[in-house]
Amino acid sequence: MLSRKKSVPKFLLILVLSAASAATVEQPSAEVHQWVRQLSHDDFDRRAAALQELVKLGDAAAPAVRQALSASQDTEVRSRLEDLLKKWRNGSIAWEFEAGYVFGIPVVDNDRVFVANKDNYVYHLDARDGHKVWRKRMDGLMYAHPVLHDNKLYVIRTRKEGHKDGTLFCLNADSGETLWTSFYDSQNFAGPIAADGKLFLASEENVYCIKPETGEPLWKFTGPDLMVSAPSFADGKVIVGNLDQNLYCLDAASGQKLWSFKTGDTVTGGAAISGNTVYATSQDGNVYSLNLADGKKQWSFQTHTRLYASPAVSGERVYAGGDDGQFYCLNARDGKELWKFDTGGTIYGSPSIACGQVFVGSINNKLTLYCLDAEDATKCWTFETKEAGYALPVLSGRRLYVGYHSTFWSVRTGLNAPARWTMCCGNAARTGSTTPAPPPK
What we know:
Blueprint: H1 10-18, H2 29-38, H3 44-57, H4 62-71, H5 75-87, E1 93-98, E2 107-109, E3 112-116, E4 121-126, E5 132-137, E6 147-149, E7 152-160, E8 163-172, E9 178-186, E10 189-195, E11 198-203, E12 206-210, E13 217-222, E14 232-234, E15 237-241, E16 246-251, E17 257-262, E18 271-274, E19 277-281, E20 286-291, E21 297-302, E22 312-314, E23 317-321, E24 326-331, E25 337-342, E26 352-354, E27 357-363, E28 367-373, E29 379-384, E30 394-396, E31 399-404, E32 407-412
Antiparallel strand pairs: 1-32, 2-3, 3-4, 4-5, 6-7, 7-8, 8-9, 10-11, 11-12, 12-13, 14-15, 15-16, 16-17, 18-19, 19-20, 20-21, 22-23, 23-24, 24-25, 26-27, 27-28, 28-29, 30-31, 31-32
């Protein structure tokens, strides 16, 4: 068994411990068609104004623009529409912001984006164009991701002035004002979650249940070693992975241990939960399917590589990837392999899924984000950075958000996913969010 002295690499602990736009509101097609018709007007100023209005609407107007392009016989109008669609191509940058070194995943809530960095600041950005709404100096490093609950933002300062810290801040999401703080004297945190009107936080050997209005601890569970995965919540149960190779299930009301499941190595990725089934990974290379009620194994699938991140589940399919860059799609009922895709790098983060597409990041001297067809792994598009970085992408609305070194990006996807994606580590099932919206017509 791995001991505290023989723990996982620091960079990986930072990643898993830290482990929803740009959802532009869909504009009425009639409004889009009104501006499209103006593109063929004899008056130059009318044409220019129409083009400007379409640009303002952004790629939410793309379906109607494509429809207009297929119907138009005017060469000049077609050229203008084609130029718009090129600007809005999937996988292109919608906006970017110099946000400092971002390790944790962002929080996206309709037109609000919250991101914390390891360079002392928390930012509130406008998801529509990336402009800064407010910035708050935290006087320390933040590796764990923030959490939004009831218009309050919860942020953990892990280090201050070169030393471990462990201060949990509750901020007003509208202004950044500090409402309260509590102290945990640690720099090791698994990303917290908000569920069932409470906060669940893992630090060192402990899992805490916290009253979000005051920071008051309601209960504490102490395990045999470090809690190294972000908690998951479903049906009144909290699931968390431990350095002792076990996955623990706790009663969310009392903190009592309900069951544990022993794997063959460290569980850093936590769990995805769908219905009465828990899907989890381990560095032993297995994807596990467990019964939520009692933790009994239903099936396992061996990938023959280390798995660091939680799997993602959507409908009858489970998705997971690991150290060798292979990304797997499994049948959720029996664990049989349906397809796999070679990303050519190492997969440290969980995938995101919406509208029949799956998004996964891979690192090989640079970060590459892949958009794949969830049915057959056909590559739809890629987004690449210039250097490697342990980024965790989050999908929301028409955008994929990813922080990397000094830059935070909003990337176009062309989808109409939910605008508020309350996920953890890129996996909607971690926090019981609703089924993604269907693709736009």
